[in-house]
Amino acid sequence: MEWYHRNGPYEILLDGANIAFFGGGNQPVFRWGQVMRLWDVVAQRHPGKRMLLMLHRKHMNGPDARAPAVEAFLDRLQQQKAFYYTPHGSNDDWYWMYAAVRARHQGLLVSNDELRDHIFSLLRPKHFLKWKAHHIVHYTFTPFQHIPPQLIYPPAYTSCVQQLRNGTWMFPCAGGGD
Q1: How far apart are CA 172 and CA 178, in angstroms?
Q2: Residue numbers of the domain that contains 86
Q3: What is the pTM of this model?
Q4: Does the record's keyword annotation contain Zinc (predicted)?
Q5: Residue 154 within any structural domain of the chain
Q6: What is the chain's percent helix, strand, coil content, to nearest 5?
Q7: Cα–Cα distance for residue pair 50/124, rounded to 1 Å
Q8: 76: how many CB neighbours lie within 10 A of its CB?
């Protein structure tokens, strides 16, 4: 992750493959249009935040990657140092997870990946599950191009009962009441 150390940190990471394949069903198709639309929505909602699109190198070889709009989009991101593609033989998940953890408390990951395979591989997933609950922004697309993708942010507060260091218990409460 030498590249990341030279160019980071980033506050918002986008899981490019997850976004591109969203809604593909049994016939997954890589959709650059979804990546570009979601990038624009996130950038509008978070002006001034450093964003990074991460994607496996193999997706750069498809015919759609050579479309003029896609090439212009990727050129712009590369000039901004906002695009990183992972090398052959690597799982891109590990790269965006590393970058998301490096972003610490203010970091957000835009992905619908539930990370189940990573959770199952951990001996103690408690801290990872807490991180996941507070840092992953989910999204959805409609079939209508004129309607922008919707972002679903993690809740500002946990829904878990907590005990503070002084022994006080905190219980979540629905609504804006006491």
Answers
A1: 10
A2: 2-170
A3: 0.81
A4: yes
A5: yes
A6: 45, 15, 40
A7: 31
A8: 12
Q: Is residue 177 in a domain?
A: no
Question: How many degrees, rounded to 5, is the angle at CA 53 between CA 50 and CA 59?
Answer: 165
Phi, psi of 150 (to 5 degrees): -100, 135
d(CA 67, CA 70): 5
Tokens encoding 121 = 């591989």
Contact 103, 11 (CB under 8 A): yes
The pLDDT profile of the chain, 178 residues, written as one tens digit per residue, is 687 788 888 999 999 989 999 987 777 888 999 999 999 999 999 999 999 999 988 888 877 888 999 999 999 999 999 998 888 777 777 777 777 777 777 789 898 876 655 555 555 556 656 666 677 899 999 888 889 999 999 887 777 787 888 999 888 777 655 5
Amino acid at 99: A
Could you tell me which residues are beta bridge partners of residue 170?
A: 162
Q: Where are the alpha helices (DSSP H) in 46-173?
A: 68-79, 92-102, 116-121, 126-135
Q: Which CATH number belongs to the domain containing residue 88 in this structure?
A: 3.40.50.11980
What is the spatial distance between Cα 5 and Cα 142, in angstroms, rounded to a whole number?
Answer: 37
Distance (Å, whole) CA 112 – CA 118: 14
Q: Is residue 176 part of a domain?
A: no
Structure tokens, 102: 């490096």
Q: Which residue is listed with tokens 């997850």?
A: 18
Tell me if 94 is assigned to some domain. yes
